[in-house]
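Q: what sequence does this backbone want?
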């Protein structure tokens, strides 16, 4: 029964994070928090998982142009990413589950953004489409009429 209650509490915290994330406006100011999670026992698989998680988080930090990410712990990085996406979201005294849920939402929002490379491809493709005009039905009909007239018409 305790496991069920813990599971329900985690779900409630995730829903609270989602609601708080949706109800705060995005802005450009940045804050920093320094709340670390307690140490856990380590084996080769857990080290591998942590390294993969950290590399993924650092890639997101690079995408958001966050400075000093190399010196932060994983919880600090997650908080920095959340603050970068939603600076007005209050992360004080929030649980690890809340932070993880808010981070997942922030990650989805970052991945949904269109970067400058996407915009360049769009502009390039629009220029290419504009340079090659498509024949409309009227133009095709006029071409067929011209060919018919060159062949002698109704003679």
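A:
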């Amino acid at each position: 029964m305790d496991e069920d209650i813990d599971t329900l509490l985690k779900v409630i915290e995730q829903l609270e994070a989602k609601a708080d994330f949706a109800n705060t406006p995005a802005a450009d100011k940045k804050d920093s928090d320094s709340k670390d999670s307690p140490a856990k026992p380590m084996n080769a698989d857990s080290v591998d998982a942590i390294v993969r998680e950290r590399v993924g988080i650092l890639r997101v930090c690079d995408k958001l142009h966050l400075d000093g990410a190399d010196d932060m712990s994983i919880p600090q990085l997650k908080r920095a990413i959340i603050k970068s996406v939603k600076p007005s979201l209050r992360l004080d005294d929030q649980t690890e589950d809340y932070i993880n849920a808010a981070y997942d939402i922030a990650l989805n929002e970052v991945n949904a953004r269109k970067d400058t490379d996407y915009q360049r491809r769009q502009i390039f493709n629009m220029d290419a489409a504009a340079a090659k005009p498509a024949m409309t039905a009227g133009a095709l009909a006029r071409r067929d009429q011209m060919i018919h007239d060159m062949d002698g018409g109704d003679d």
